[in-house]
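Example record

The entry below shows one chain as it appears in the dataset: sequence first, then structure tokens.
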Amino acid sequence: MKDFTQGLLFGAVVGGLVTLLNTPRSGQENRIRLQAYMQDNAESMDELNTDLSRLKDSINRLATEGLGVVNTATQEITASVEDFAAKNQPRIRRVTDRLTELTETIEEEAAKYEMPNV
């Protein structure tokens, strides 16, 4: 950013000098115009610096707030998953128990129909 600022100032100075050397106006009129030109450029630089500072502050604020939102969302999702698991654990246990019962029943019924080895 420093190189950009230096380049901008150098360009402003060179442009002003070229204008001074190639103008048909009087020296006093040229000085007045040059002062106005330099003042406009100085104001533009101040505005640019202010805008860049605001941009930097906005980016920092966005990063900080974004990190907070991500942390909050992560905590809420974790809590939801844990709550879901806790609430559904009895159901899962019942399904597992029922599956065990069905497996045992099928094995018992299959054993009834098995033929003895001859």
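Notes for this example: Residues 27-113 form the longest helix (87 residues). The two ends are 94 Å apart (CA to CA).
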